[in-house]
Design goal:
2 domains; 239 residues
């Protein structure tokens, strides 16, 4: 089982127990339109605040491209989609702005932007290059070193925590998007068609249990699945 499959299984397990964005690194009109593709439930005042909020910028273009490269290495693309389809980079930008307040201890600056700076510094120290100029194999080598808590990495304590944060956000951003849910194969409360107990099962209990034809016509006719059932005063099903 590869890393991606392991992540999917973990997420599906958590979903079961408890119960978008376009590819573009610049926050232009296309991104803003995509972010607010689902605008229902917003008051005019809220929409005005959101538009003002979203038209501001937190990360510069270089930082956004760095985040994009990091995210694609943490969760590589597959035949279903990639982190750009899921709008993971835009999510970083959104959260950085939304949480860059004293109430959130300036999370955007102290954690998300700090992560970009630290990863750049590590690449420079190890390879003599900025992260964007490093090859995928070089970045993977670096990330493998800071992927887990290790007593031997006392001098890398900050980078380990920052990578854990980035990894968590990338996975969350992808698997909570439309493309990510499709990748998981999670159906949720998707309605299906039920035509009763299969005949081969009924055959096993022949002479013991069976369907009443009138009941089947009323209850298992999928052409009538959109109709609301009606009952008489004695509790008999009419439709």
């Amino acid at each position: 089982m590869d890393r991606r499959e392991s992540i999917k299984n973990i997420l599906l397990g958590s979903i079961g127990s408890s119960v978008l964005l376009e590819s573009c690194v610049s926050l232009d009109k296309e991104v803003l339109d995509k972010i607010w593709e689902y605008q229902y439930g917003r008051t005019p005042e809220e929409k005005e605040r959101d538009e003002k909020f979203l038209n501001s910028k937190f990360f510069n273009e270089n930082e956004l491209k760095t985040i994009e490269k990091i995210a694609n290495i943490i969760l590589p693309p597959n035949e279903i989609g990639n982190i750009n389809d899921a709008g993971v980079v835009e999510m970083f930008e959104f959260i950085a702005k939304d949480w860059s307040t004293p109430a959130h201890n300036n999370y955007g600056e102290k954690v998300l932007r700090r992560g970009v700076i630290v990863f750049d510094q590590l690449c420079t120290e190890k390879f003599g290059l900025k992260l964007l100029d490093c090859s995928e194999s070089q970045i993977k080598l670096l990330f493998d070193e800071i992927s887990y808590e290790d007593k031997s990495l006392k001098d890398q304590k900050e980078s380990v925590k920052l990578f854990a944060t980035f990894r968590g956000m990338v996975v969350t951003g992808y698997f909570t998007s439309e493309i990510g849910i499709k990748d998981l194969g999670y159906k949720g409360n998707t309605p299906n068609v039920w035509d009763g107990v299969p005949n081969d099962v009924l055959e096993q209990y022949k002479g013991i249990v069976s369907y009443d034809k009138e009941w089947i016509d009323k209850c298992i006719d999928q052409s009538k699945r959109g109709e609301i059932a009606e009952w008489d005063e004695e509790g008999n099903l009419l439709t």
